[in-house]
Amino acid sequence: MGARLWTRDFVLITLASLCNATGFYLLLPTMPVFVLKALGGDQADVGYVVGLYTAAAVLTRPLSGYLVDTRGRGPVLLSSLAGFAAIAAAYPLAAGLPALFALRVLHGLLWGAVTTAAATVAADVVAAERRGEGIGYFGLSMTIGMAIGPAAGLAILGDGRFGAVFAASAAAIVTALALAACIRYPAPPRPPSRFTAAALLDRDSLPLGVFTLLVMLTYGGIVAFITLYGAELGVANPGLFFVAYAVAITLTRPLAGMAFDRLGPVAVMVPGLLAAAAGFTILGAWRSPAGFLAAAPVLGLGFGMVMPASQAMVINQVAPHRRGAANGTLMTAFDLGIALGAVVLGEVSRRHSTAGAYLAAAAIIALALAYFLAYVVRDYGEKVRLRSAPGPAPEE
């Protein structure tokens, strides 16, 4: 393809996202230890710390998308990164659980703003004809941060160096801020308009949002139960699941993005969803350490194909001045799906078994595939045709 992918601004936003993700994932395995050992909390308090963060991120994404579209990508990204770093540095000042809960709400609000703004900037600076490939590479910043952050956080923590962990997290996010400050941001695509509740979500993105929510319901089961399921099956090191999963996603995302650009969404989505369904079937039906580890790369292949394709589709079908709202809508569905999936599949696990929950996840993926083929593909095609038709672009 003729258009350059690795432009200066695309490299900067990808590296900034990597540093931000690393700063976030440094805290993921260490925050529960901080709650239990430093603040004297219990398992329920750990749940609140995780839940409040996720809920806050969900609440702020629609507003963040609106602000990105109306106030500009740069101001939202830079101010939210600055606040994100400040909160990370403030955690040692939490004298008790109420203060920590308040900081987690603020941190979650800013996480929603940072990630929505960064994804919109990436969509702006990548060439349209290489958007799938570019989003695939951009998404690797989160995957790599997920791989190195937890291990680095635990290594820094040692036997209780919480202050060092929080300082490292803040430093990583400050680095992200410095990189983001060097990006040449376009002016807001359209002057600020009168705020309305309808402006918070992008109506055209709702079909893809519903699809994403269905897919992420199943991912919630991975996040919540995979370590416990590995121990149940007698796996010596359940963490190997995440290693194999991350490697598969890392190898898959760029190739899936290129396939999307050249062949279209069906050629990527259908095999990706089939792979995800197969991975969950292996996980639930082959109840052994071998099956547990075999499922990981298959699931990584599936999610590595589906997610960049979803992100490219939602950007392709909206006008530039609605990219923030479109990303906010998609990411809201992403977060809600994970949270609801942990609850729904947790209930299936409690009533039946964890293996049964993963077989239920395979059925949910099949439902998502049916919905995609029956409605989402046609809806997407119509919207893209409208966007590319001669004459003025349709107004929102």
Topology summary:
Elements: H1 8-27, H2 31-38, H3 43-71, H4 73-90, H5 97-125, H6 131-157, H7 162-180, H8 206-232, H9 239-263, H10 265-285, H11 289-316, H12 323-351, H13 354-388
Radius of gyration: 20 Å
Low-confidence stretches: 391-396
H/I helix tally: 13
Estimate the strand proportion: under 5%
Q: What percentage of residues falls in helices of 4 or more residues?
A: over 70%
Q: Report, as a whole number of angstroms, the end-to-end distance.
A: 32 Å
Structural class: mainly alpha
Concise description?
The protein has 13 helices and no strands.
Could you please describe the fold and organization of this structure?
- With 396 residues, the protein is mainly alpha-helical.
- 80% of the residues lie in helices and 0% in strands.
- It is built from 13 helices and no strands.
- Helix 3 packs antiparallel against helix 12 and helix 12 packs antiparallel against helix 13.
- The radius of gyration is 20 Å and the shape is globular.
- It starts with 7 loop residues before the first helix and ends in an 8-residue tail after the last helix.
- The C terminus is likely disordered.
What descriptors fit this protein?
396 residues; 13 helices; globular
